[in-house]
Amino acid sequence: MKKIVFILFVFIYPAFAQSDFEFEFDYAQFGYDTSSNYVEFYYSFNEASLKVNSENSNAKIEGLLKIFIKDDIKGDTIVFNQWKLKHDILDTSIINSQILVGTLGFIVPKGSFTCEITGSDMHNPDKFRLIKENIKVVPYMHHSMSISDIQLASKMIQGSENTSSIFYKNTYEVIPIPNVVFGISQPALFFYLEVYNLQSDSIKSEQVKMSQMIYNSKGKLVKEKSKYLSRTSNTRVEVGSHILSNYPTDSYTLVIALIDSVGNTGVSSAKKFFVYNPDVQVTDTFEVSTTAVLSSSFGSMSEEELDDLFDKSEYLATKTEIDKYEKLSNLEGKREYMFDFWKAKDENANLNKNEFYRNYMQRVQICNERYTSMGKQGWKTDRGRVFLLYGEPTEIERYPNQLETRPYEIWQYTEIEGGVYFVFADLTGFSDYTILHSTKRGELRDDNWQRRIVVR
């Protein structure tokens, strides 16, 4: 690790609650380059947790922040340092209602890291809090669409020209809220995130759909809204807010997803937060296990998009699976069903991304590019179906301009069942090739298929 950047600042806002020693920590990752991310650490001390010390008749409090970051694989120490935080107390009568907030930033390479963050009182070492966090860095700057972590903020995120402020970020000033608690004393949640690689060739839609969803601790979707992002620039910043004054006390998850509707792919970012509203009564006890869906592209699809996706997926589905999906009547059920459907077909369930699903959707796109004709999408054609199920043929024999026969093709697959082939023919003259014969078990077989392509 050759370069470490750090920044230190103090911002004061009202405290939410108090305990023996209140020290909070949070972090978010943003794109830096193709081999590393910029990781921001946010911390806060409650003034009431720090001992007031008088020096030269001036009252002050002093906190100590220590950060240790270690590479889990190489064993290298990336960061091992401490910073002193000093703040003068002008009015001790309000010390119990103030929070001191700071931020530190580091350029961290790709990998897995163990972080230990300690906050303590400079004048009372017995008062401290140690927080351990495992952080995985996967660079955002690559060839496909990606989205940063979500940073939560305590104040409205507005445009700013104060470039000297360490809270200045891409023309905005973003004040973090490390305890991520909202509600009675912090009724509005504000968020900041960055979107990368919007002009990637892998994106097929002219605009990208951005969906915001809030789930409660039971996995119930309690709020959803969406908009469309243009692709005029490769990167962009998104800020927004949610009013939480009517949310009952609970833990929640904010999910922001980007969906390429044409390519049927997407990425998402999730952030957990807490709401404390003791006067708001819980009125809905609905419970469903949809937590696993939150960080997937299915979690932000509309019902129309899910139905279209299942149509494309029916080639892989059993009759029982088709019947089960068709009986679903609610959006959340369809989202969870599609998540489970594709998860069951992924050979490596340990991967964060479903490779089987991604590869299948890529085949859908190839089918649409190659086989679309007369208004029929390529994946709906016979050649599209075979391509989706079995992939790229080993060899294709094409006969487009024979005098005595209609145009036809023979697709060879040498790796399937010891070698099989498929015969397709354009019987209508509109480039809509239908399957006539195959030696693959379970497929249409007609050993006299040649008679159907003879020009009479």
List the keywords.
456 residues; mainly beta; Immunoglobulin-like; 3 domains; five-stranded antiparallel beta sheet; five-stranded mixed beta sheet; 5 helices; 25 strands; disordered N terminus
What is the element layout, followed by pairings?
Blueprint: E1 11-13, E2 23-33, E3 36-46, E4 53-55, E5 58-71, E6 77-88, E7 99-109, E8 111-121, E9 124-137, E10 146-147, E11 151-153, E12 158-159, E13 168-169, E14 172-173, E15 181-183, E16 188-196, E17 208-216, E18 221-229, E19 236-243, E20 250-260, E21 265-276, H1 303-313, H2 319-326, H3 331-345, H4 355-371, H5 382-390, E22 395-399, E23 408-413, E24 420-426, E25 433-438
Parallel strand pairs: 15-21
Antiparallel strand pairs: 1-7, 2-3, 3-7, 4-5, 5-6, 5-8, 8-9, 10-16, 11-16, 12-14, 13-14, 16-19, 17-18, 17-20, 20-21, 22-23, 23-24, 24-25
Notes on the protein architecture:
This protein is mainly β. It folds into three domains: 1-141, Immunoglobulin-like (Sandwich), CATH 2.60.40; 179-296, Sandwich (Immunoglobulin-like), CATH 2.60.40; 372-456, no CATH class. The chain has five helices and 25 strands. The strands form six sheets. Strands 4, 5, 6, 8 and 9 form a five-stranded antiparallel β-sheet that branches. Strands 15-21-20-17-18 form a five-stranded mixed β-sheet, with no helix packed on it. A hairpin with a 4-residue loop joins strand 20 (250-260) and strand 21 (265-276). Helix 1 (303-313) runs parallel beside helix 3 (331-345) and helix 4 packs antiparallel against helix 5. The longest helix is centred in the C-terminal third of the chain and has 17 residues, at 355-371. Residues 1-19 and 285-290 have low confidence and may be disordered.
